[in-house]
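Sample entry copied in:
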Amino acid sequence: MEIIRNILLILHIVGFAGVAGATIAQLPKVKEGVAKVSGGILHSAWLMLATGLGLVGMMYALGGAPNNMKIGVKTVVLLAIIVLALVFKKKENVSGGVLGAILGLSVLNVALAVAW
């Protein structure tokens, strides 16, 4: 079970890296007016959601007691990222504010995971 938990945790971190990396990669394109929400942002956010739910499920299965408030807040932040990505995915170009919001929310999610 520990191996599965570690795999899920690694994939969860890879999901964050995908959201942050794909967003940062689009920031230089804001000046040119061709920045967009890439598929990498959306797919990485879905990966974070799936692996996060798997990690919580494993904690319950192993008899642990996760901090439900923390998990709830992190889930709401992640759902906000997914909603932003879904809403702006079809747009040909997005503002730096949208990309900044996605990046800021993803960093907030990591800060909640580490500091709470």
Summary: The chain is about 75% helix and 0% strand. Residues 108 and 114 are 10 Å apart (CA to CA). Residues 2-26 form the longest helix (25 residues).
